[in-house]
Amino acid sequence: MKRHTVKLLLLAVVAALSGCHQNPSHPENDGSIKEVVWPSPKRAKLGTGLGVFPTPESISLLNNGMTKDQVYILIGSPHFDEGLFRVREWDYLLHFRTSGYGTHGVTTCQLKIIYNSDLLV
Predict the structure, then answer these.
(1) Is 84 within a domain?
(2) Owning domain of residue 46
(3) pLDDT computed for residue 20 by the predictor
(4) Which long-range contacts (CB under 8 A, 24 or more apart) does 59-67 make?
(5) Whole-model pTM?
(6) Is the keyword rRNA-binding in the record (predicted)?
């Protein structure tokens, strides 16, 4: 009986962790993707899906070859539940003040950062 319980517990842990590795756009090893899959803005994990107002300078500093830590320092953690292990895409909900454009002078954009198999942008 004890052995059976351990096997069931192990199976439950494996099943739970399988949801911790999500890459909906299915990046190739080189970081390329065939089809971009965008999450619904309503799923942003910032409480109400409000997103953030980054500085244009921080966005302009994003570049190929950056590590996850470097991206995190520039624009913070991803705004959607991406998973826990070997996640190779981060999604952000960004707002920019655009006087005279957008809703109430604010334009909303989504940004997707794709990492290659070495976990570099």
Answers:
(1) yes
(2) 2-114
(3) 40
(4) 59/94, 59/111, 62/113, 62/121, 63/121, 64/120, 64/121, 65/120, 65/121, 66/120, 66/121, 67/119, 67/120, 67/121
(5) 0.73
(6) no
